[in-house]
Amino acid sequence: xxxxxSLSAAYGLAAREGWVALLGERIARDRLAWxxxxxSVSGETTAGGLRRLPEDIKRHKPSLVVIALGANDALRxxxxxxxxxxxxxxxxxxxxxxAEPVLVGLMxxxxxxIEYAREFRELYPKLAKQARVALVPFLLAGVAERRELFxxxxxxxxxxxxxxxxxxxxxxxxxLLRRPPKK
Length: 183
What we know:
Blueprint: E1 2-4, H1 19-29, H2 46-60, E2 64-68, H3 71-75, H4 80-96, E3 100-104, H5 114-131, E4 134-136, H6 162-177
Parallel strand pairs: 1-2, 2-3, 3-4
Helix pairs in contact: 1-6, 2-4, 4-5
């Protein structure tokens, strides 16, 4: 189950164009025994995700939970400590449901100050290390610095960016997906 915001919900695109749908296609092409559920919601914050996660875990019964949240917290200038606490609790909830959590790292431009951007960037590797979870270092690596890969709002990646995003996620997910899902 991919649990994210608009970056994972294929905002402004057909659902089949998003990186999560492309992940499902790669899994099928590689004949891996997994089914992908996209439980991403545009505009979601870590607080909203934390409220929503128990029901999505109950509904989908995932073996793996890819947590890709935090961009909206940063865009709203929310405290990094609160986002970290919310993500940490989502990791705990996933584990309590016997699902393996994977954390997806994000970065922001220094609009809110260099210190805030640094704290936000460091949040993901620090939390992944503390919680001992797999980490996708930066969801938008190879995309963030290329304006042509963004929709006119300059926030949401285009269809052309989605395969790059999948390639950022795949090295972290592939070893986990090569194992059979938990029953």
